[in-house]
Every structure is written in C-alpha cells, then in structure tokens.
Amino acid sequence: MVLRSQEAAATSYRDGLPPSDVQLEVGATNGRFSEKEPTGAFATEAFPDRAIVLIESRQLIRDGIRRSLENALAREIFAVSSVAECAARGAKCRSAVVILSTIGNANDAIASEHLAALTEAGAGLSTIVMGDHDQAANVLRLFNQGARGFIPTSMPLAVAVQAIELVAAGGCFVPSSSLLACVTEAVPTTKTAPASLNNIFTTRQAAVIEALRRGKANKIIAYELNMCESTVKVHVRNIMKKLNAKNRTEVAYRANELLVSIASS
User: Fold this and answer.
1) If you ran DSSP here, which 8-state letter would residue 51 be given?
2) pTM listed for this prediction
3) What sign results for the dihedral spanned by CA atoms 187, 192, 197, 200?
C-alpha cells in the first residue's frame, strides 16, 4: 500500500513525469479497501493444489458468490473471469475443484464447450456446474461431458457447500431433485392419469403434484403455474395431509404409487 505525498508528487512533476503517473492509493488508513483484478504475471500464476476456483465472467456476481463461499467454507476461493484463464492457471494442478457458473445462461452449447476446455486443461480439475436448469436430462448430459457435480441455484448455500466438499474429496454430487425426476420419468403415465388425480385432488393440487414429481422447487412451480410461492406452500401442505406424507420426497413417492395403481387398474 503506497501513499505519495504532495511533495513527492511535485518532485515527480518537476522531473518531467506527467501528472497521470502520480498515484494516490488510500488503504486501511481511512477504513476503506478496494479490490483489484489481478493483472500481469499474477494473472497467470498457477493455482495451488486442492484449490477451489470459481469461473464467472460478471464481476458483481463473481464477487458475491466468491465471498459467500469463502465465508461458508472458511477458505480462500480463487475467482477468475474466463475458462481460458482457469485452464492456463490450473493446467499443472494435481487436484482442484472448479465451479463453472452458467447462471442465467440458456445456451447449452456454451456450457458444453467450457466443460470440454476444462477437461482438456488437466486431469486434476474436477468441475462442478452451477446453473438454473436442474432437469434430469440436462444434468445427465453435463455429467456425460465431464462434470463431477451440479449445483442448482434453488439449492441452499449450506447444501451447496457440502456438495463442493464432496467433490473435493473425490465424489460426485447430483441434486435430489434431478434424481427424483429420473425416477418419476420411468413411471408409466397415461392421458387419464391427471383426470384420475383430479378425482382425489383439486386441479391446482394435481398440477402441483405433477411438478413435485419432477423435482421442481416451489419458486419454479409458482412461476410455471402463475401463482404466489406462498400459495404453492399451502397446496404442498394440503397434499402432504391427504397423502399422509412427511416431506416433498414422500409426496412424490406416494403420488408415483398412486399413478401406478391407477394405470394398472
């Protein structure tokens, strides 16, 4: 941290240096701290082994995610703005976890290209994709392309931290919503199934049950069914009472059993 006095600035000016070369950097002395993006040789410095790296091109989102994870994990998170920088700095890592942020990105081709680049960069990079779309087909495709985990934006921070730690320990993480969707997709359904559910539940409740069977979060259900999230929660509680279920997973399981029974009758 450097503080140049007016006298030093005047000397520099007298020596022929332009005023633009005179810098005033204020740090801890006035209680303010300014972070700067790494430049020059530091930008290509290799990541240490067992590093956790975040890739996010948007600085505001990148800083927010990094600080949240650093507080939760109690360790440094290395944040970069591009896959190319991560690949260059992580090529010699024997082990590192890379969190590839695709938040707000609906272009699957871009995510595929990024995964391919990280896979080629080094065998020591274990990539977790962080994104909005946790549909089973999308998550399975990402794993087939080399991902070791998927963290949906609907997931609580505490669970996301556990997912990162699991991948760092050599495991793989798939969100329960995606696993549940894989199971429900294997359940035979017919065009008469929704009508049969309507004999037991209201039309809205039947629609919420179908969304729960696909592992969707309340806010997604509310958006797709054009209702408030608080209304969705009320429907979920009423459905749990009717099915004598203790949680959302049990609701989906009992609903599957009901649909199978209807389809076979």
Assistant:
1) E
2) 0.56
3) negative
